[in-house]
Amino acid sequence: MLPSVPAVRAFLAVARLGSTARAAEAVHLTQSAVSKQVRTLEAQLGVTLLERGPQGAKLTEAGAIYRPYAEAALEQFERGARRLSERLAGRRPPVRLHMIAIVGERWLMRRFPDFAAQHPEIDVQFTNYVSENETEDADIDIRFGTGPWAGFEQHYLFGREIVLVASPAYLERIGGLARIADIQQLTLLQHFQMPALWAEFTELHGMRGAVPAHTIRYGYFSVIIEAAAAGLGAALLPRCFVRDELRGGKLVNPAGVGFDSVSACWLLLPSDRPRFPGAVALTDWLLDEARAFRDGDPSAKASPALS
User: Fold this and answer.
1) 269, 275 in Cβ contact below 8 A?
2) Which of 188, 214, 259, 299 has the fewest CB atoms nearer than 10 Å to its CB?
């Protein structure tokens, strides 16, 4: 049997607040009713979820495992109810846009006021992944990767041109890069989800199997950019995300070393979801802005290639 929503709600309230009394106030039930709901849930699952004591209630190991799944399930119920309510009430549904952080930081947020001014009637909600068990239900998704992604219509945005960057101080400290083989002395600052960039880079430069002297992995492109600017190592990054640092001299692209990757930023649309006017308008605007962004990306000045 699947647990009831009241039982899950009662369990989560006790887990969050630490007592059945406070949970009862939060879910508008009596304390005995909350206790009964939790006991019913435990009986259905065949485990003890909460330990009760003089200091209140705390999660057991089983309760800690079950909690994120219960939270995700309850959130999905509530999200579905909101979306249904929006449709039944005839209101314009908000457009839910998910994107990797660097796209918002380095591209979208500085342009989005123009869209908001052109379409004040469209409510755009910026979403993000919460955990492996819970994801926001996005109408438009912007990802960095290779694809293809099953169940999505995909459109190229930008980011294929990858460049090797480092701070001038770091390059001076390691004696510079006189030849391509010198990349093996680098400390590589790498996105943990993009290890293939190094393999692509070395393959295209005739260095298959080469490894950097040391690798430090990060979860965000913006942190990698800051780490490179601080002299902690070198990084392979989309040129479009380090334009400002290259122009200002905080980062340099030694000898113009780089390559065109199979990875890039893509706009994804769920294939099985109807597209309402707000989502269509935002999609068209994003694609137009991305096209202008690509066209306005100046190429690096010609530099002698490493041998």
Assistant:
1) yes
2) 299
The Cα–Cα gap between 173 and 167 comes to 10
Cα 273 to Cα 281: distance, rounded to the nearest angstrom:
16
Equal CATH topology for 95-159+264-295 and 161-260: yes
**pLDDT at position 130, please?**
44
So what's the pLDDT on residue 280? 95
Topology classification of domain 161-260: D-Maltodextrin-Binding Protein; domain 2 (3.40.190)
Q: What are the φ/ψ torsions at residue 284 (nearest 5 degrees)? A: -60, -40
Query: What is the CATH code for 5-88?
Result: 1.10.10.10
Of 144, 136, 186, nearest to 162 (Cα)? 144
Amino acid 304: pLDDT: 36
Structure tokens at 268: 């994804």
Low-confidence ranges of the chain (pLDDT < 70): 1, 86-92, 128-136, 297-307
pLDDT of residue 75: 86
d(CA 53, CA 55): 5
Phi, psi of 260 (to 5 degrees): -95, 120
